[in-house]
Amino acid sequence: MTSSSLLDRSRRAVWHPCTQMKRHETLPLVPLVRGDGIWLEDTDGRRFIDGISSWWVNLFGHCNPRINDAIGEQLETLEHAMLAGFTHRPVVELSERLSTLTGGALGHAFYASDGASATEIALKMSMHAWRNQGETGKSRFLSLAGSYHGETVGALAVTDVALFRDAYAPLVRSGLTVPSPDARATEPGESAEDVAERAAQALARHLEHHHHEIAALIVEPLVQGASGMVMYHPHYLRRARELCDQFEVYLIADEIAVGCGRTGTFFACEQAGIWPDFLCLSKGISGGYLPLSLVLTRDEIFDCFYHDDLTRGFLHSHSYTGNPLACRAALATLDIFAADDVLTANRGRAAQLGQHASAAFAHHPTVPHLRQQGMILAFDVDTD
User: Fold this and answer.
1) Percent of the chain with pLDDT over 90
2) Distance separating alpha carbons of residues 272 and 353, to the nearest angstrom
3) What's the CA dihedral at 17, 326, 271, 369 to 10 degrees?
4) Other CB atoms closer than 10 Å to residue 189's CB: what's the count?
């Protein structure tokens, strides 16, 4: 099959995501045939570095032999079974291992297949948990200015990116926002921690007046990706945890993009020494192989739903919840983290990356705000 033939067929039959399809009249799609490590190869044999990790999902390279083998072994025994009324070893082991990574703070896992679905689960579960405790007025959600938590209708209520939200405003519940602790907002003489404290004080004022109607605060820990790689000091997470406890509001950590080691620790929340009430995980958890997402939560929240009354249960489901193949891919991914001491190696790589970037851009006249969090590095370009 020629590349032009495949491109023509794709344009006629496939509606590509997050894309104005008319642009492909002049900007051709890349027709891929294989991947190997960091490389993607097209039908003409040209190779491309997958520099965006296929939307942040690929951690250890395309066609990684260890993940391939794990999925192949699982494929010989159980490819899929619904998780309602059944269970299986991969989902049990994955849940246990992820809980162990939180030191047991988050003891239960609820599964889905993509990041936005994990956001939806955390939002629904947090509101329902309050409802089960008799707090029927706590049904709104608070997020940071510039937040991104997915593009489904529920997730858009806590997404503050106009490009994704405005067209669907008539469908979307109104959310509440508080200032971002964006470290770039420092005043003369201020540090990133000072900015974080200033934002935390704004959060405190908001919660003081609205806590009775707020079910949860949702944040992207340390890095707000879609709003321009906004980075902030861990102090904000510590203060958010304190304030959520004080005003009886749940804390949701959306680690869909920043989890799985990208910030220097497996979970970004670890750098603040806190655990949320709900932690959303997806993207890299399956090594970039198969759709998988989950919400980790505290045992006390699980207990809010454990009751003889069916309607007090969390009646939410997806057909491929806890798919065995995806869970085995995730277990293989965790095995690689452990066997290769990936987090230690990444700290060395991050330091080297930062040194090179600093040497190139720290004093560049058109590059303000060079910033880094683990393996995530960003800078702005002044075009004036």
Assistant:
1) 96
2) 23
3) -20
4) 6
User: How much is the average pLDDT of 268-273?
Assistant: 98
Structure tokens at 282: 């997806």
Q: Residue 325 sits in a domain of what CATH number?
A: 3.40.640.10
**pLDDT tens digits, one per residue of 175-189:** 999 999 999 999 999
How many C-beta atoms lie closer than 10 Å to residue 360's C-beta?
12
Instruction: Specify if 66 maps to a domain.
Output: no
The sign of the torsion formed by the CA atoms of 303, 307, 310, 312 equals negative
Q: What is the DSSP string of 72-138?
A: HHHHTT-S---SSS---HHHHHHHHHHHHHTTTSS-EEEEESSHHHHHHHHHHHHHHHHHHTT-TT-
DSSP class of 62:
B
* pTM beyond 0.85, yes or no: yes
Considering the domain boundaries, does residue 36 fall inside one?
no
Let me know if residue 325 belongs to a domain: yes
Instruction: Enter the tokens of residue 291.
Output: 């759709």
At 53-80, the pLDDT tens digits run 999 999 999 999 999 999 999 999 999 9
